[in-house]
């Protein structure tokens, strides 16, 4: 069920749009990696424990991850990164494919001296998180895939877009200006090319090679990641855990962060201990 409490709606929007200003919990940080200046939001005072890295989806940024980040920050150090070319991070030139984005994250973690991390990816970010765990396993302690894409049953941009549009009525409407700002930052060309990159990447072929513990979630009102698709991914990785986020749409990290955090935190407690 969507939460239309206006105080909570305003708080989610405030969290999403605070950067680069510091607030009571988070601050913006920058580091230059392979010639590109990367931006992320980080907890100003880290709780003890494994850092949790949040990885955003296609054509967006750290912003829509911040409602979930705020819930996780009560228990863990949190890092919400803008991947190269998105949000406040610099332009790397041509759009990077999934493996290249994972490598950039790996270089960034090494540059700032962090890792292994628990990585939480939403949508296309789940594809990047899976590639990071597959190709740079020493840097990843556990993985959470929130509404992972791309279901090969919908092999075209048109079909993927249609399933995304069907779910929009269940999303927090306050997310729209956040996403439009992210799209303006990334640019239509990068967003369109990243769509091609996401479609070409096969998370179902990567997952069997992931050694870290994995939690796969979908929203109860999810229209992008179907239950059939989640079950297929679960069969590929028998040791994975799966869960349905009550009342949640595709962007559970923004619209239903409390419900998502209630599933993620126990998983992290079991799998992300130092």
Layout of SSEs?
Layout: H1 6-17, E1 26-33, E2 36-43, E3 52-55, H2 66-72, E4 78-82, H3 98-112, E5 117-122, H4 124-135, E6 140-146, H5 157-166, H6 175-186, H7 188-200, H8 203-206, E7 214-219, H9 227-236, E8 241-245, H10 252-255, H11 257-271
Parallel strand pairs: 3-4, 3-5, 5-6, 6-7, 7-8
Antiparallel strand pairs: 1-2, 2-4
Structure description:
It is built from 11 helices and 8 strands. The protein is of the alpha/beta class and 274 residues long. The protein has one domain: Rossmann fold (3-Layer(aba) Sandwich), CATH 3.40.50. The radius of gyration is 17 Å and the shape is globular.
CATH class: Alpha Beta
Order of strands in the sheet with most strands: 1-2-4-3-5-6-7-8
Helix % is 40-55%
CATH topology annotation: Rossmann fold
CATH homolog superfamily: Alpha/Beta hydrolase fold, catalytic domain
CATH architecture identity: 3-Layer(aba) Sandwich
| Domains (count) | 1
Biggest β-sheet description: 8 strands, mixed
How many helices does DSSP assign?
11
| Low-confidence blocks of residues | none
- Gyration radius, to the nearest Å? 17 Å
Order of helices and strands: HEEEHEHEHEHHHHEHEHH
Say what oligomer this is. single chain
Percent range for β-strand residues? 15-25%
Distance between the termini: 35 Å
Q: Which word captures the global form?
A: globular
């Amino acid at each position: 069920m969507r939460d239309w409490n206006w105080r909570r709606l305003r708080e989610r929007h405030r969290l999403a749009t605070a950067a680069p200003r510091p607030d009571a919990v988070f601050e913006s940080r920058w580091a230059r990696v392979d010639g590109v200046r990367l931006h992320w939001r980080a907890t100003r005072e880290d709780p003890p424990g494994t850092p949790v890295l949040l990885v955003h989806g296609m054509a967006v940024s750290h912003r829509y991850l911040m409602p979930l980040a705020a819930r996780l920050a009560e228990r863990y150090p949190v890092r919400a990164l803008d991947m190269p070319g998105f949000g406040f991070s610099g332009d790397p030139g041509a759009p990077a494919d999934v493996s290249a984005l994972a490598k950039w994250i790996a270089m960034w973690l090494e540059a700032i001296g962090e890792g292994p991390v628990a990585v939480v990816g939403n949508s296309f970010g789940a594809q990047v998180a899976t590639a990071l765990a597959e190709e740079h396993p020493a840097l990843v302690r556990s993985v959470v895939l929130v509404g992972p894409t791309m279901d090969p049953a919908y092999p075209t941009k048109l079909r993927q877009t249609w399933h995304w549009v069907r779910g929009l009525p269940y999303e927090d409407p306050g997310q729209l200006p956040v996403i439009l700002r992210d799209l303006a930052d990334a640019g239509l060309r990068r967003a369109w090319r990243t769509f091609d990159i996401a479609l070409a990447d096969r998370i179902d072929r990567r997952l069997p090679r992931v050694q870290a513990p994995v939690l796969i979630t979908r929203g109860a009102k999810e229209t992008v990641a179907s239950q059939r698709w989640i079950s297929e991914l679960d069969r590929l990785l028998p040791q994975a855990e799966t869960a349905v986020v009550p009342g949640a749409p595709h962007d559970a990290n923004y619209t239903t962060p409390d419900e998502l955090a209630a599933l993620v935190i126990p998983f992290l407690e079991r799998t992300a201990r130092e």
